[in-house]
C-alpha cells in the first residue's frame, strides 16, 4: 500500500484512527494477586476452500480467562 497509495487507503487509515480514538478508555483489568496464565489456541484448514484452494487460520491468545489477541 505504501508503493501505490490511493484515496481508499487514506480513508481506511482514518477509519482505524477514529476507532482507536473512540476505544481509548477500553482495557483489560486483572485483580491484584490473580494468577496470570498465558494460553494460545490455533486452528487451521489447509486448502479447505475447494474453489480457491486457500488455507484458513484462526488463533486466540488468552491471559487468564481474558482474550488479549
UniProtKB/TrEMBL annotation:
It comes from Sesamum latifolium. This is Retrovirus-related Pol polyprotein from transposon RE1.
Amino acid at each position: 500500500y505504501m508503493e501505490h497509495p490511493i484515496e481508499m487507503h487514506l480513508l481506511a487509515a482514518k477509519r482505524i484512527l477514529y476507532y482507536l480514538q473512540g476505544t481509548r478508555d477500553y482495557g483489560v483489568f486483572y485483580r491484584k494477586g490473580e494468577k496470570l496464565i498465558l494460553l494460545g489456541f490455533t486452528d487451521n484448514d489447509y486448502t479447505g476452500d475447494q474453489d480457491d484452494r486457500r488455507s484458513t487460520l484462526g488463533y486466540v491468545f488468552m491471559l487468564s480467562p481474558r482474550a488479549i489477541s
